[in-house]
């Protein structure tokens, strides 16, 4: 055999001689009377001779751009160029002397696939190659499916195109219904790296022809294959199938195609065999020309494309499922409702077996699943117990919580990250695959979402990304509900922390400058950004601002005011204690630095897991102490109380100016009344109006934020 890439023979035999090398020793009674191989025509004696002349390939190049130099400068190419599909049709209709059409996909007023369709209607056997820089996997798949002989991106280069065209034209020349002489076959096979065979009606190899480019692909010498039979090269069922194909070719008298797989020295390979009658008899038997082409890469590309399409379809449906789940979260008012909506949505889908939520999990404390849907709760608890019992470096739950990384088990039976106890618990739940996704918002860890796949091999990278996004949004929803409940609740848990570590920049400055610092307010300006407004006693704002430049945690700072009565800074810090408390879902009521000690007071919802808040705060201040925890009542302010408080603060003139401006459309955009028009209605000057409005607006805002 000559080529592990193309020969319709079993290369797994390596260089071993065929089982039968003498045709007279074959078991077929008819073949037993065949004359010896030495009486075959002389054309089989020299398998390495080269053609005496090179054939000119006539190419119709369809593109509104210039053809590559490898075509324009080739001596054996006659090139005709047109820019549109219609021009190509006209050229083919006027003169059919074209060996191959090479077309761009993106054509003016049309595309290469439309041209391909019309060419296949009028010239079914004319070679057609798509050569493009604007295609895609879908275009390539569709082009091959419509009958294109080859598809090549332009960045592969003109020389690669020339080789592909030569191969395609040569193969098409072989596939003639009238038969081709042996010398002509050898001439053609020198033009492309496929192997051609002459095989008689009984399956005996009479000739093997290959071009010089296949020399490095040989695994069995050609001489060892000639004279053997398909039954020597293939298992009996496959050999019989190939023999049936030869008979069909001889009966139809036309070109027939078959794909088959064989074991070679390079492993399993797929081939496309195209056969046509030779048109003459050899030793009284009819024969066919068999051109074999390795299509393993093409089949693999088609398989990968099909898998990609299947994965994309699945991913789109999963995204639809996730969107549906997120819609259901809008109306949820408690954390339990959020977790149940998520688990029910996942467990009731076609993609997943069951789902559960556990946490927040804290080291050295047993995690108890809060919601389980689609599985027995006791079995899930046994599985969680088996996982949390493992050491820290092998504990999947701890990894998810500590590192914020998902853990995927694509195949329960084969995974090496599971303990036998975990595997047994999973088998008891009839699980095939699983994933643990963290529920994290900012630095606050709300727990873990566990999902069991409906089959092994699920949870691709893109699917995992979608589920991780779901986990982030679920954590965000939990955080929002906790904040809303805290805002509306009449009770809360008050936590007080004490920090005397050198980690606190304001703590150090309170000693170095003999000053006191108090938090006046906090404004969130992004997912990870907080502006803190800090008042100062005992030092000037400019002095403190200068000192803050040496503190690494300070991102930005500026002076708001610097006088004896009001000394205020705006500071943006990374990893501050206030930032950590806000991310943990609490409301910071106060923070004060004095004599090297910083005290923080925060309020959390009554159902808060205090250990989680403490761990989050200690991520910034490891030696922080929780000095008090108590339940406090929170006054409920009605709208009437708010209005009454505001009315007490506003003067009559300020209230009149504010109401008149509001009803006159001064606050609309665009304004329905100007300041001058409102002032004229009140019979006052414009500066007086703006003075009243400024004072009223300041009191309105302070009443809202200082409640």
Keywords for this structure?
elongated; Beta-Lactamase; 5 domains; 707 residues; five-stranded parallel beta sheet; 24 helices; alpha+beta; 39% helix; disordered N terminus; eight-stranded antiparallel beta sheet; Rossmann fold
Description:
This protein is of the alpha+beta class and 707 residues long. The chain has five domains: 11-50 and 190-294, 2-Layer Sandwich (Beta-Lactamase); 57-173, 3-Layer(aba) Sandwich (Rossmann fold), CATH 3.40.50; 334-486, Beta-Lactamase (2-Layer Sandwich), CATH 3.30.450; 491-633, no CATH class; 639-705, Arc Repressor Mutant, subunit A (Orthogonal Bundle). 39% of the residues lie in helices and 24% in strands. It has 24 helices and 25 strands. The chain has an eight-stranded antiparallel sheet with strand order 21-22-20-19-23-24-18-25. The chain has a five-stranded parallel sheet with strand order 2-1-3-6-7, with helices on both faces. Helix 3 runs parallel beside helix 4 (112-122) and helix 13 runs antiparallel to helix 15 (420-428). Residues 1-53, 174-183, 188-192 and 212-221 have low confidence and may be disordered.
Summarize the structure.
With 707 residues, this protein is α+β, with helices and mostly antiparallel strands. Helices cover 39% and strands 24% of the residues.
């Amino acid at each position: 055999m000559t080529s592990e890439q193309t020969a319709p023979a079993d290369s797994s035999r390596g260089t071993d001689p065929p089982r039968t090398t003498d045709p007279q020793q074959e078991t077929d009674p008819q073949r037993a009377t065949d004359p010896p191989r030495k009486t075959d025509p002389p054309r089989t004696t020299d398998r390495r001779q080269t053609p005496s002349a090179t054939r000119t390939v006539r190419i119709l190049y369809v593109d509104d751009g210039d053809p590559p130099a490898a075509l324009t400068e080739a001596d054996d190419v006659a090139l005709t160029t047109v820019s549109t599909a219609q021009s190509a049709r006209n050229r083919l209709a006027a003169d059919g002397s074209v060996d191959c059409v090479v077309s761009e996909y993106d054509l003016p007023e049309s595309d290469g696939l439309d041209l391909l369709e019309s060419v296949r209607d009028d010239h079914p056997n004319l070679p057609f190659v798509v050569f493009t820089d604007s295609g895609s996997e879908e275009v390539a798949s569709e082009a091959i499916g419509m009958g294109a002989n080859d598809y090549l991106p332009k960045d592969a280069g003109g020389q690669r195109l020339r080789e592909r065209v030569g191969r395609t034209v040569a193969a098409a020349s072989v596939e003639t219904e009238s038969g081709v002489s042996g010398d002509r076959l050898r001439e053609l096979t020198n033009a492309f790296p496929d192997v051609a065979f002459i095989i008689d009606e009984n399956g005996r190899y009479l000739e093997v022809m290959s071009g010089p480019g296949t020399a490095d692909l040989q695994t069995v010498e050609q001489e060892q294959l000639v004279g053997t039979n398909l039954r020597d090269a293939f298992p009996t069922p496959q050999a019989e199938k190939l023999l049936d194909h030869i008979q069909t070719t001889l009966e139809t008298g036309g070109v027939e195609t078959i794909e088959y797989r064989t074991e070679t020295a390079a492993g399993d390979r797929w081939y496309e065999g195209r056969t046509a009658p030779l048109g003459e008899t050899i030793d009284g038997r009819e024969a066919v020309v068999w051109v074999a082409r390795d299509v393993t890469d093409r089949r693999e590309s088609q398989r990968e494309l099909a898998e990609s399409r299947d994965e994309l379809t699945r991913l789109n449906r999963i995204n639809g499922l996730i969107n549906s789940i997120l819609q259901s979260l809008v109306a949820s008012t408690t954390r339990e409702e959020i977790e149940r909506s998520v688990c029910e949505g996942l467990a009731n889908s076609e993609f997943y077996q069951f789902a559960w939520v556990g946490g927040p999990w804290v080291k050295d404390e047993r995690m108890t699943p809060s919601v389980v849907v689609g599985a027995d709760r006791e079995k899930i608890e046994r599985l969680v117990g088996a996982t949390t019992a493992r050491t820290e470096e092998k504990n999947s739950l701890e990894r998810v919580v500590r590192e914020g990384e998902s853990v995927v088990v694509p195949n329960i039976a084969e995974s090496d990250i599971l303990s036998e106890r975990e595997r047994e618990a999973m088998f008891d739940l009839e699980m095939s695959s699983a994933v643990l996704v963290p529920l994290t918002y900012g630095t606050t860890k709300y727990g873990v979402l566990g999902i069991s796949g409906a089959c092994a091999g699920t949870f691709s990278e893109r699917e995992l990304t979608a589920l991780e996004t779901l986990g982030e949004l679920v954590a965000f929803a939990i955080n929002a509900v906790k904040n809303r409940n805290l805002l509306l609740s009449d009770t809360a848990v008050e936590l007080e922390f004490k920090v005397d570590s050198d980690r606190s920049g304001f703590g150090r400055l309170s000693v170095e400058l003999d000053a006191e610092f108090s938090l006046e307010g906090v404004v969130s300006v992004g997912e990870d950004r907080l502006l803190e407004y800090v008042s100062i006693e005992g030092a000037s704002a400019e002095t403190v601002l200068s000192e803050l430049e040496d503190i690494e945690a300070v991102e930005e700072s500026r002076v708001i005011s610097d006088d004896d009565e009001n000394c205020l800074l705006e500071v943006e810090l990374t990893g501050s204690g206030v930032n950590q408390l806000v991310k943990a879902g609490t409301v910071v009521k106060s923070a004060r630095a004095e004599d090297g000690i910083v005290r923080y007071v925060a309020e959390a919802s009554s159902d808060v897991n205090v250990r989680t808040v403490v761990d989050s705060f200690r991520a910034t201040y490891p030696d922080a102490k929780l000095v008090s925890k108590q339940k406090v009542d929170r006054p409920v302010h009605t709208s009437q109380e708010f209005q009454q408080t505001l009315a007490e603060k506003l003067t009559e003139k300020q209230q009149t100016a504010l109401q008149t401006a509001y009803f006159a459309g001064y606050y609309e955009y665009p304004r329905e009344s100007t300041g001058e028009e409102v002032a004229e209605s009140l019979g006052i000057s414009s500066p007086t109006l703006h003075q009243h409005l400024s004072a009223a607006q300041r009191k309105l805002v302070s009443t809202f934020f200082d409640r």
